[in-house]
Amino acid sequence: MTLQRGRGRPKGDGVNDDRALMAIAVKLVSAEAQDYEAAAAAVYLTHKPSRTHVRKTVMDRWRGKWNERGDAFLAQAQRPVVRVVRSTPR
């Protein structure tokens, strides 16, 4: 039994862009940006990946991941943040 690879480039790039995608979702939920393009452009300036000089490549990679998992990031950004404050006895 021989396992054959599929033709073409393998799926996935191995780069974890979850932090940037979450920042895009937060900008969309908080109405800091009107659409995905504006939010991604703003996040790119603050989360610019190191060793990357081509903005279009990064933006295209984010767009592909956003199309696949954007709804999950939006749902997570809309959840209320619950903070628990514990006081320590003196």
Question: In brief, what are we looking at here?
Answer:
With 90 residues, this protein is an all-alpha fold. It has helices at residues 18-29, 36-46, 55-78.
Largest sheet: none
Radius of gyration: 18 Å
Helix content: 40-55%
| Strands, total number | 0
Chain-averaged pLDDT: 83
Q: Which of globular, elongated, flat, extended, rod-shaped describes the shape?
A: extended
Number of helices: 3
Q: What is the terminal-to-terminal distance?
A: 68 Å
Query: Given the helix and strand composition, which structural class is it?
Result: mainly alpha
Oligomer: single chain
Q: Which series of helices and strands comes N to C?
A: HHH
Report the sheet-strand fraction: under 5%
Write up this protein.
This protein has 90 residues and is an all-alpha fold. It is 52% helix and 0% strand. The protein has helices at 18-29, 36-46, 55-78. The longest helix is centred in the last third of the chain and has 24 residues, at 55-78. It is extended. The mean pLDDT is 83.
Features:
extended
Which secondary structure elements does this structure contain, and how are they paired or packed?
Layout: H1 18-29, H2 36-46, H3 55-78
